[in-house]
Specification:
CATH topology of the largest domain in chain A: Rna Polymerase Sigma Factor, Chain: A
Largest sheet of chain B: none
Oligomer: heterodimer
Shape of chain B: elongated
Largest sheet of chain A: none
Distance between the termini of chain A: 26 Å
Strand content of chain A: under 5%
Number of strands of chain B: 0
Distance between the termini of chain B: 44 Å
Helix content of chain B: 55-70%
Chain lengths: ~180, ~90
């Protein structure tokens, strides 16, 4: 799996397929910030979503470090959501009446954490990634997953459990690697 | 990253459902629309009347020109025009 920085570097080099990957990788993040953290209506969320990616596409060469793409996208999304709420304020309650700042920070923090977990998902293998994504992110039933993946529905729960354990080990491994590199 | 149990991991995975597929596809089309966007921005820079119309109401100006722009192209144009015309 490529790092964020590697995908950004390929985008800068003009590789259109890398842009597809970048959008795919961050689409859930942008969507969740707009809809969960800022609680935008779908039509406003769609405008913000498209504008975020338009600006990222246009200004990718201005990014100081390729590693900084995730915080940059988060900041951009947050700013565009606030602009959207401000323009809606003319017709309704102020944005500070709509958004609780403490709740917003907590929600954004959780989404950032969720992106870290999602990044680890790619490291546990396609089979686990698929089953965990279908069950937790797409809210599919055991039966539906079983039919789609050609597995008996009765085995789905145990597979999910095994994959979660694998994902946890992956996350702990990353955490230990980060700690030991920080200790040096 | 410490202290993750399976329940917490599951909860975090649930926080990131997929964005609507149409939105994702539209954003992925941006490289294909690069030339169209550049041509419209260049025209807005060169043609004062057109510039006035796009600044006043971008979507209406595109519609008047018979241009069927996707939301991603409109967003990209808006971002480009904001840079070029300010």
């Amino acid at each position: 799996m490529q790092t964020d920085a590697e995908i950004v570097a390929r985008c800068r080099a003009g590789e259109d397929a890398a842009w597809d990957e970048l959008v795919e990788r961050f689409s859930r993040y942008v969507y969740a910030i707009a809809v969960q953290a800022f609680r935008l209506e779908q039509h406003d969320a769609e405008d913000v979503f498209q504008e975020v990616f338009a600006r990222v596409y246009q200004h990718l060469d201005r990014l100081r470090s390729d590693d900084a793409i995730r915080p940059w996208i988060a900041q951009l999304t947050r700013r565009l959501c606030i602009d959207r709420l401000r323009s809606a304020r003319r017709e309704g309650p102020a944005e500070d009446e709509l958004i609780d700042p403490a709740g917003l920070d907590e929600s954004l923090g959780q989404l950032d954490e969720a992106m870290t977990v999602r990044a680890s998902l790619d490291a546990v293998g396609e089979a686990c990634r698929e089953i965990l994504d279908r069950f937790f992110c797409r809210d599919e039933s055991y039966r539906s997953i079983g039919e789609e993946l050609g597995l008996p529905a009765g085995t789905i729960a145990s597979r999910i459990s095994r994959c979660l354990t694998k994902l946890r080990a992956e996350l702990e491994g990353r955490s230990e690697a980060l700690s030991s590199s920080g200790d040096r | 990253m410490n202290g993750y149990d399976e329940e917490r991991i599951a909860e975090l995975l649930r926080r990131l459902p997929p964005a609507p597929l149409g939105w994702v596809r539209a954003a992925q089309e941006l490289p294909a629309a690069r030339e169209e966007i550049a041509a419209l921005v260049a025209r807005a820079e060169a043609d004062l009347a057109f510039r006035g119309r796009v600044v006043a109401d971008l979507e209406a100006a595109l519609e008047d020109e018979g241009i069927v722009a996707t939301p991603s192209v409109v967003a990209a144009l808006r971002a480009s025009l904001a840079d070029e015309l300010t």
